[in-house]
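REQUEST ID: PR-0412
SUBMITTED BY: lab tech R.K.
PRIORITY: routine
TASK: structure prediction, single protein chain
INPUT:
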Amino acid sequence: MSGLLTQRRILVTGAARGIGLATVRRFVDEGANVVALDRDEAALAMLAQSAPDAPIRVITADVTDSTSVAAAVANAAELLGGLDGVVNAAGIDLIAEFEAMTLADWSRVLAINLTGPVVVMQAAFPHLRAAGGGTIVNVSSGAGLSPLQHRTAYCASKAGLQMASKAVAMEAAAFGIRVNTVCPGAVETELFRSSIDHEPDPRAAYEAIRARYALQRIASPDEIAAAILWLTSAESSYVTGTAIAVDGGRTFH
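STATUS: complete
OUTPUT:
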């Protein structure tokens, strides 16, 4: 690897699986010191055991609990000796017809996908300022750019995250902090598979999703991690307040 993140101190949420896990591994390969945060303690333990010699610390926290987040971010900064970057990859999906969606469903999706990243950013902000600048990359979705049927809460949460990120970027620039958003399309993760497997014909559902994409395939988590790496590295030093579609061409196809 090229050492794009040598000695960078980075917190990754939603780090135990999928895009978050791929990001942790890619960042470590690029020289970063990483704190992996997730609410799944067992999955974090497996991550730590899989790379015992890697510069990865793990912290269990739920992004919907602001008190837990404040303590976790402070702990991460202490473990790393400061923070230079944050990646918000924690998120959930919800497939529900609009009339069947409950207020509890709506509230839970927004709490994890929108409020959670905002709370993490707020908690991390003083540490990034103290470091003299840094990066925040929020994982949104192509569904925040172009809507999907039966995903009202999910689309709203991801579109909201993009606009929140742009607004924070305007304030953060004065402190040398860049804030950007990655908008993936369908990615081969447990979250994606869980949405497919509940369909009457999972194979047909998979093919229907694949056909939406100009590239005619589903992404790997590593492909999304590569975009997150670029936005976290100095290679994107003049990029802030943007939402980058990494979606195989669905939002224009």
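NOTES: The longest strand covers residues 177-184.
REVIEWED BY: pending
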